[in-house]
Structure formats: structure tokens, C-alpha cells
Design brief:
Layout lengths: L25 E3 L4 E6 L7 H12 L3 E5 L8 H5 L3 H18 L2 E7 L1 H12 L6 E5 L7 H10 L5 E3 L17 E3 H17 L7 E6 L8 H9 L5 E6 L12 H15 L1
Parallel strand pairs: 2-3, 2-4, 4-5, 5-8, 8-9
Antiparallel strand pairs: 1-3, 6-7
Helix pairs in contact: 3-4, 4-6, 5-6
Length: 263
């Protein structure tokens, strides 16, 4: 069974750490149309599991990958490059393409950026991309501080919850890896170069109350995309982890409608 992560042994001689309970990749077989689901920075497939179940219930095969260095221990994330994360998603794309005739990609936050990267790299294999609460760039202060600071401090605590719904429990790292955050900065720079060359239909889903990725990022992404179809769908009652928050059913329904329109 596909494990959701590309050959972790290749990155380190040490055996990988056990996967955190709840952070496992998932696969829900359904119809001949599939959707690859990609979690965000420091997160895990758990953040998209409900979306995968919803899509499968509507006849869309769903595969949720676990990106390299995620869902285990933070020390593994320190050693990641953004290429490792893209490679993990590409492995999931290859797996889904062996099982489905038509494939879409969807991701939240950094996972949305990776979805757009895949749409640029593999347009013949992807019918459309969904980017949820996805950054166009990091704040300037972060871009200035990250390169030198990552050599001094490896990790920092994360701020509070990223959902408006206080009942939500996320399976993710409680601290952020600064070396990995620098890789995120480089990934976003690469994706900004990709955007004018993305031609598949794109659905951007953004939260007006996102405390992590400012809602203005959605307009910047939309303006830069080369796609003829590049819609923004707004959520009014969610924070950053919108796939777990109050608007999740609206989000899931919109994603399904997009997939059905372009499959």
C-alpha cells in the first residue's frame, strides 16, 4: 500500500520516526475521477481527511499524502528541502494516475502551493487544481529574518489555534522548524515563477478571517495565474484550517462542483 511519502530512507541513514497517531496517509477508492489531497506546512493528512471522505462519498477517489518530514517528529522536518515535499506529492500523483482516468490536485496552505507547482510540472496529468488558503509570498519581515536566524534557532513555538471552531483538534507539530520555513520561502518563490505558466483550471478558496495567510494573497495568486479559469471562492466563517472549520461543508461542496465541472 502506498505510504504517502517518497522513500524517507533515502534522506537519512537513520530509520524514520514512527508516524503520529492520526497523521497517516489515506486512500478512499471510489470512481474513475481522483483527487490528490496535500496538507500544509507542519501539518498532516488529518487536516484533509474529512474532505477526502466527502469526495469519496460523492464518487471521487481521494488520496491524501503525507509529505516528507511531516507527521513524525520535528527534527525530521529540519532536514527537508522543498523538493522533498514536491517529490512526496508527485509520488501520490503517480499512484493516483494508475488508478484513475482523470486526476485533480488540491492542497491547503503550503499544500496549495505544491498543487500549483504540480499543475505547472504535470499539466497533461492534471485536470485542475484547488488551492485552499494558499500563500503567494511570506511577509517581508519573515523573508529578512529566516535566512540568518535558521542557523541560530532551529524551532519556535507556533501561535494559537488556526480554526474558529474551538472543538477542532489538529494533528500537527506544535512548533515550527525554521530551516524548513526557509525552504517554504524558496518553494513560494519557485511557485511565483510557475504561476504564469499554469494553464489548467484553478479554484482558489480563501478565508476572509485567515490569521495565517492574509486574504489578499488570493487576489495576487489569481492575477498571476495563466489559467483561463481561475476562480476565487470566499469563506466567511473560517480561519486558516478551513477544511476543519465552520465552513468546511461549503468548501467541500465547492471543490466537488469544480471537479465535476472540469472532469
Amino acid at each position: 500500500m502506498f505510504n504517502g511519502e517518497m522513500n524517507p530512507q533515502a534522506h537519512s541513514e537513520a530509520a524514520p520516526a514512527p508516524v503520529m497517531p492520526g497523521a497517516e496517509p489515506f486512500f478512499y477508492p471510489a470512481g474513475e475521477t481522483g483527487c490528490l489531497l496535500i496538507h500544509g506546512f507542519g501539518g498532516s493528512p488529518q487536516g484533509l481527511r474529512q474532505m477526502g471522505q466527502y469526495l469519496a462519498g460523492a464518487g471521487i477517489t481521494a488520496l491524501g499524502v503525507r509529505l516528507h518530514g511531516h507527521g513524525t517528529r520535528l527534527e525530521e522536518m529540519h532536514r527537508c528541502s522543498y523538493g522533498d515535499w514536491v517529490a512526496s506529492a508527485e509520488e501520490g500523483l503517480r499512484e493516483l494516475n494508475t488508478r484513475c482516468r482523470r486526476v485533480f490536485v488540491a492542497g491547503i496552505s503550503m499544500g496549495g502551493a505544491i498543487s500549483l507547482r504540480l499543475a505547472r510540472l504535470h499539466p497533461a496529468e492534471i485536470r485542475g487544481a484547488i488551492a485552499i488558503c494558499t500563500p503567494y509570498d511570506l511577509p517581508l519581515w519573515m523573508k529578512i529574518l529566516l535566512p540568518p536566524l535558521k542557523h541560530v534557532i532551529k524551532e519556535i513555538p507556533l501561535p494559537g489555534r488556526s480554526t474558529r471552531d474551538p472543538a477542532v483538534i489538529e494533528v500537527n507539530y506544535p512548533r515550527a522548524s525554521l530551516p524548513a520555513a526557509h525552504q517554504l520561502m524558496q518553494l513560494l518563490a519557485r511557485v511565483r515563477q510557475d504561476l504564469p505558466h499554469v494553464t489548467v483550471p484553478v479554484l482558489l478558496i480563501a478565508s476572509r478571517h485567515d490569521s495565517v495567510v492574509h486574504y489578499k494573497n488570493a487576489a495576487l495568486l489569481q492575477a498571476a495565474l495563466g489559467s483561463a479559469v481561475k476562480e476565487v471562492f470566499w469563506l466567511e466563517n473560517s480561519d486558516h484550517m478551513a477544511t476543519l472549520d465552520y465552513d468546511k461543508e461549503l468548501l467541500f461542496a465547492k471543490a466537488l462542483s469544480f471537479i465535476n465541472a472540469y472532469k
